[in-house]
Amino acid sequence: MLDLKVRRGKQEFRVVRSWFAEEKRFCIWLTNLPSETYTANDIMAIYRSRWQVELLFKELKSHTNWQRFVTAQKAIVDGLIWDSLLALIIRRSKALQIMPTVSLFQAAKNVDVWLLPIFECISHKAWSEIGTRLEWACSYIFKNAQKSTQRKSKKNIALDGIYAGLNA
């Protein structure tokens, strides 16, 4: 691990470098966060969190048609963004309640198939049907949203693991 203070002209920043043996490569981060407050490991965790946030926005753009809004009114655009974030939170929390090891990406790709019928029951107050819809959703997610094992899929670099490390 390397953590250097560097000055270029009047600007001062840090260069944090770490070797990842498993991947056989160095990663380098540049930051202006003070070393008195943030360790090199904190810097790496923060930047990994940033990548997770980027992936969330990619998911939102892919599954909520964020490519273009049909309005230029800021209040409406803000509302659509907040609604999309709320839908993402609901979609993810329901998928995780149904199956804790679910692939959130796979579950999000077809939320209209498994979550919409549950919301329809709620909106129509069809309380007697919710149990059946939940069972079907569980079965559907179990069959269609299994998490695939990935080389980089490690608990400490997922968003929850990063937050746990920063809050420790």
From TrEMBL:
Entry protein name: Transposase DDE domain protein
GO biological process, one term: DNA transposition
UniProt source species: Vibrio thalassae
One matching Pfam family: DDE_Tnp_1
Gene Ontology MF, one: transposase activity
Domain Transposase IS4-like: 20-75
Entries under InterPro entries matching the protein: RNaseH-like_sf (IPR012337), Transposase_11 (IPR002559)
